[in-house]
NAD(P)-dependent oxidoreductase
Amino acid sequence: MKIGFIGIGKMGRWMSENMLDAGYCLTVYDTNVEAMKPLQEKGAIVATSILELAKQNDIVITMLPNSSVVEAILAGTDGLFHSMKSGGIIIDMSSSYVFSTRKLAEEAKNFGLTLIDAPVSGGVKGAKAGTLTIMVGAEEKDYSKVLPILECLGKAINLVGQSGAGHALKAVNNYLSATSLYASCEAMILLNKLGIDLNVALETINTSSGQSFSTHYKLPTFILPETYNSGFSLDLLLKDVGMVNNIAKDTKVPVLLASLIEQVYEGAARTGEPEQDHTEIIKFLEKISNERLHKKEVVS
Ligand code: NAD
């Protein structure tokens, strides 16, 4: 089966490699030509434009930074809507904005196309291993058509609702993740100030009720050893929290903590290095508390 893949970034690079390994005939496109080279070496066809990719493929996956980019690539003058054959399916696996997705999905129908949202969780590690969690917003009949494709990218795949449901759930999931990471980092700084060994603290928290993905994985892997190489940028996490605040406004449902969490990550984005990893949130908290974490080795 021929598939097009647009957005060969930190995630898309591994997701498309898994599709090649699964035997799909893959055409890739990214504005960064260098990013496509490793895939070309593995047998992918490199397209020089969206138009070229769209004409060759009835199924196209997008893995792009945000809804503005997705809107341009789907609905722009030379975009997928205007160039794919009627009957085609677009799967947006980016973390996009639910209401933009719903609008695009309606527009897609006018061109005889189907837009499915299928954002992912599991990071670069999950993308590489093909173990992503995939949350799908689609009609049941369309979901069953694309399920075999998704199965070579992820393990936990759920149809969570109609168009946009996947994107809504993904934003909410990342809001929870951002909140727990923030709280866990703040806790580490406080414990450090109190002179408590952070290795011992983490070991104890991880068998107590304060445990989370942040305490089990992010703190010992990326933060305490100061590697900051999770592969998920702080800007992308800030985008996700911002989307939850926008959903809250658009639906008139108060999500009080989300505005605080957005401001914290906003502060970190403004004061930190460009392109910083989301785990570098700790540096912002170190700055505002004037407290530096010292312990670097973690007992596994
Ligand atoms: P990234 O910035 O590494 O990759 C995005 C890619 O899109 C880049 O290669 C960029 O060149 C390309 N691109 C941008 N504009 C383009 C255009 N107009 N035409 C063609 N290509 C274009 O981002 P990423 O970390 O791979 O994340 C991609 C998406 O997945 C985002 O929506 C993100 O929120 C989501 N996500 C990321 C992670 C993670 O751990 N990195 C985890 C889950 C979900």
Notes: The longest helix spans residues 165-193. The radius of gyration is 20 Å. The chain has two domains: 2-162, 168-289.
